[in-house]
Every structure is written in structure tokens, then in C-alpha cells.
Amino acid sequence: MSLPEETVAELVDIALACCAATVEQERSLLVRTHTAIAGLPCELLGGFLSGFPNSEEFTGLIRAGAHESAALRLLGWNLGYMVSRSPDGTCLATVCAPGVDELAISAETLTLGLVAGLLTAVAVQIKGGCEVVNVGKSVRLN
Questions:
Q1: DSSP category for residue 53
Q2: Positive or negative CA dihedral for 106, 107, 110, 113?
Q3: Which of 5, 86, 107, 116 is the most buried (most CB within 10 A)?
């Protein structure tokens, strides 16, 4: 099953927006991410996002202002992650997904970094390789 190029482009656009966003934009980017991924066919991801939250659970976390918890729930059960913060306050989030190289993302907050990493990993999974997904200089493969 293939998806229109616009679908992958939307995932990458949201990921790039996360890399450039401020903490004030977390909420809207989290909602956009959930909506975009929830609309993907499950068979396309092949268990890649087991445990992806339903709308009710996710909305509850957003309403509570639990943005980091919401980002972690988006990762599901099959993705690994590691987070750190540089002395200047920039956050680095690394997302490890089955069949996808480790992705390190720099962003203003851990939430934004994790979400950008997730979106990039999903785009890579859909396209079948990093070389066909242009995610900009805020993302690096380890």
C-alpha cells in the first residue's frame, strides 16, 4: 500500500515545524501529530506504533498540560528514546524505531524533539529509507 506524497510531506513538514517551534507551539504541534499519524493505515506501519493513544486518552493529556507525557504516549511501546539537554538549553531527542536508523533531533523542548523524531521515523518507515526523506539539518542519523 502506498500513500500520496502529500501525506509523507505533511509528516516531514510537522517535524520541521517542531524543530523550529517554541514551547508555546507544543500543544498545536502535538495535536497535528496525533491527527496525522492516527489517519495512517495500520497495516502500513506494521506494528511500528503499537500502543498509539486513542483520541480520548491523548486529548486528556493535552488538556492537563502534560505535553511531555503526551509526546511519550505518541511513541507507543515499540520505539526507544533518549533525551538530553545541552548547556545552552537546546534539547536533543533520539528516537530508535524498528527498521529505522537512530534519529537525533534538536529542538527547543524535549516534547518537540521527541515528536519531530517520531514523525521523521514514521516518514522513513513509509518511504522505506532515510535517503528519500529530506528532514533538514536539525535531524541527524546516528
A1: P
A2: negative
A3: 116
CA 37 from centroid of its chain's CA atoms: 9
Stated pTM of the model:
0.87
Candidates 76, 28, 79; CA nearest to 52 is 76
Q: How many CA atoms lie within 13 A of 13 on its CB side?
A: 8
In whole angstroms, what is the distance from residue 20 CA to residue 38 CA?
Answer: 23
**Helix extents (H) in the chain:** 5-20, 26-38, 42-45, 55-63, 67-74, 110-127
Q: Confidence band (pLDDT; 50, 70, 90) for 98?
A: confident
Mapping DSSP to helix (H, G, I), strand (E, B) and coil, where does residue 6 land? Answer: helix
Query: Residues 102-120: what's their mean pLDDT?
Result: 91
Distance, in Å, from the CA atom of 87 to the CA atom of 51, rounded to the nearest integer, reads 34
- For 21-51, give one letter per residue: b (16+ CB within 10 A) or e: beeebbeebbebbbebbeebeeeebeebbee
What is the side-by-side strand order in the sheet with 91-97?
80-85, 91-97, 100-107, 139-141
